[in-house]
Write the structure tokens for this entry.
Amino acid sequence: LHLKLFLGTNLPLFYKSIQHWINDGLMVIFFFTIGLEIKREFLEGELSMPSQAILPVIAAVGGMAVPAMFYLFFNINDPNTIRGWAIPSATDIAFSLGVLSLLGSRVPISLKIFLMALAIIDDLGAIIIIALFYSSNLDILSLFIVLFILFFLYQCNKKNIQNIWMYIFLGTLLWIFIQNSGIHATISGVLLAIFIPHERKQQSSLLTCAEEKLHPWVAYFIMPMFALANAGVYLGDVSLESLSDPIPLGVMTGLLFGKQIGVFFTTFLLIKFGYARLPSGSNWMQMFGVAVLTGIGFTMAMFINFLAFDSDVYINQAKIGILIASFISAVFGYILLKFSVKNS
């Protein structure tokens, strides 16, 4: 995984290991796909109307803030480990929806839409966190070039240009200069997605076409490659005592308890005070089960883990916390939802 790939050039930008090409290259496509989903949801989906969006948006904010507080509680006094505060804030949209889908039609479709909208907002929050807190020293010249490219993309979107190769060319330039600017390269995928044209009245647009074409590649190639490159855990030093170290403890409590508290209680308060209502056909136990599923933080949490820490020891500790908490959240959430379906 650390074999260097040159791509025919000795420029530092292209001198990277296979793992870096996956994390800084293939994951751009993953973030691009997320960006397309977010844009479509805001234009015509569950997030297009404020009355529909308020519940998943506020629940997602609570589900990001409270886990971070749990992590900070255990790591606030250590300047080396505090950088991992955002790790338990992320929800894995694919795995959480995958577990919910195991129950099939027994779960109300409104509950699936709620979880999807919440996870999309959660991903958007994670993207903002990466851009603001996990980017290195900024190169001003590269940033100006990035702004210039974004202006061209804006013009392409405004004129509803449907030529995919134009966007691939500009997107590649955007990726190169964003990476060179010090902002994490994956942000280029989200920025490109914003400017992919889509009109509400169009049955088929460049956005929907790109989303449909990329989903299988993301699900069956990019995500498995990311997992293969990053999920390996060294178990030689793992013991029950090591799980009480600040990093795994902060990550596990954040994902297991912070997510549940943050998502469920914000939802409960919004509904009780009349600002929102339960998704149609669902009950409170199902809402709690969904809140538990948001503790599955595999992909995005792993990604932030690699941005937060340079130390292999810290990275490994966080991985253990992520894997344990995600597994428990998946099993417990599934049991809760299955029980709630039987009794509804």
Summary: The chain has one domain: 4-135+184-342. DSSP finds twelve helices and two strands in the chain. The chain has a mean pLDDT of 84.
